[in-house]
Amino acid sequence: MKTGRIKLKQNGIYFLFMLITFVPFAILMLWNLNHIKDERTRIFNENLSRFTHNTTTKCINRQIDDIELVLTIISNRLSPTGLHNYIDSNKGMVGTILSSVVPSLPFFNAAILSDVEGNYAIYPSFELKNSHIQQIPLYPDINLHHRVYFSEPYNFVFSEKHHDIVKQTITVSKNLFDIEMNRYGNIAFNLDLQSMSKTLNSIIAPFEGRYIVVANNGTVIMTSSGKDDEVMSVPREWITKSIGKEGRFYDNKLHQYVFYKTLTNPSWKSFTVVDEARYDKWVNEIPYSLIYMVIISLTIYLVLIFVAHFYVRDLMRTLYMLSNGIDYNEKKKDFENLYENIKKRNRDLNDAYHISTEDPLMKIGNRRKFDEKLECMIKESNTFWLAIIDLDNFKTINDTYGHDVGDSVLHYMGKTGKSIMDENHASLYRFGGEELVVLFKGNDIETYLEALETWRLVVAQRQWREKNLQVTFSCGIAVFKPDDTGQSLLKRADLALYQAKSAGKNRIIRASI
């Protein structure tokens, strides 16, 4: 009888222990079930807002900045005499600049130079059809001296090989002024919207969404789908609803969630669109998964309680035997295995971090590691230099000799760069594609330029097995200023790189301070 009461009391203790450990678990699961929809909605909104902002900044704003920079540089080098010479005979420095810029930059497919009398020249050469040069949307307000003007999408009609061609385009232009601020002409470029959209082809929007860029009249000009959307447009209500810099709204007619970001110049808008079905699936599917998880967790919990019951019973038996002087000779525990497993796990973690921050082809730091290092150096506010290196004619090398040879060239670039640069003062990173970045700690610019020049000569003088293969690179280098951001420093170095390319490539240009 006494033994039965003791056993009953012992079972009651087990039950109470199980209840005490289970109640917090049950309360937590119920709370999660009640609040999971709000949390998933918040994640949905944050992810799509962040995606829209980051994609617009990296893929659209950067191209716009490059376009404005090219227009500013070229317009500053033009003069009334040079403009008239090119219009009259297609000769002079202007022709050289245009023949270099238009084929080499992906966002231009034609350049148009015109004077105030309506005379014009187009590169590459073709004839406007049934339109006067001053009737197409090229000219911004003449009072806007420094601003670059982006037109709305329109049909550009021209003749080529005796055929009339109609193509929707956007023209970006800038008026030209002489030293007395008298307008003497205009320089304009037709944008290749299809090529500009290629930067979006690799973008995958969250929740199977679709990212598009539209003009102020609602015409879609770029899209992540990679399809020809020249005649597609968005509802006019989307334009009127996207009045702030960034935001979101729901389209009741199309049953879509729309996230937007507004650009200032040009007056474009970017949208990320997700169907309501995808939203509902994301928000509502998780509670069912959580219920399954609760059931599985509860099952595991009961199993563990059952196992713990026997473990505690055996432990109590062992303690009882030891307390009563009964010899209990248990085998020794093997901690050596545990120690070796911990060491192996640490090695695996270190290897994983190394893989995630190193470019596997060039064996130098990747973009992620560069961003971390640049942010750290800017926070330290010590003087340093940043060099951007771009392989000359790398696309031609890939197209002519194949991507395996292109990979060999990139591997050789990384190998020689690491061997030449002093690792105590310089770090190399692959910025993207055929672009590399070098960060130099300190202010010994002469030593840095000497190392870069040595690298350039070693690469240029390399004899390759492939016939007629010649590899060179161009470089722009800029110093960090106290008021610099990472973007502004990269922009100055990128401008120096552009100057090196324009000056004939295979050279190093130092940005002006």
Structure explained in plain terms:
- The protein has 513 residues and is α+β, with helices and mostly antiparallel strands.
- 50% of the residues lie in helices and 21% in strands.
- The chain has twelve helices and 18 strands.
- A five-stranded antiparallel beta sheet has the order 2-1-8-7-4. The protein has a five-stranded antiparallel beta sheet with strand order 10-9-13-12-11. Strands 15-16-14-17-18 form a five-stranded mixed beta sheet, with helices on both faces.
- Helix 1 crosses helix 6.
- The N terminus is likely disordered.
Q: How is this structure best summarized?
A:
Helices cover 50% and strands 21% of the residues. It is built from 12 helices and 18 strands. It has a 5-stranded antiparallel sheet. A 5-stranded antiparallel sheet has the order 10-9-13-12-11.
Q: Which oligomeric state applies?
A: single chain
Please count the beta strands (DSSP E, at least 2 residues each). Answer: 18
Radius of gyration: 33 Å
Shape field: globular
Low-pLDDT segments? 1-8, 325-339
Strand content: 15-25%
Quickly count the helices.
12
- First CA to last CA: what distance? 96 Å
Main sheet: which strands, in order across?
2-1-8-7-4
* Mean pLDDT across every amino acid position: 83
Biggest sheet descriptor: 5 strands, antiparallel
Structural class: alpha+beta
| Helix and strand sequence | HHHEEEEEEEEHEEHEEEHHHEHHEEHEHE
Helical amount: 40-55%
Keywords: GTP-binding, Membrane, Nucleotide-binding, Transmembrane, Transmembrane helix
Cofactor: Mg(2+)
Organism: Leclercia barmai
Pathway: Purine metabolism; 3',5'-cyclic di-GMP biosynthesis
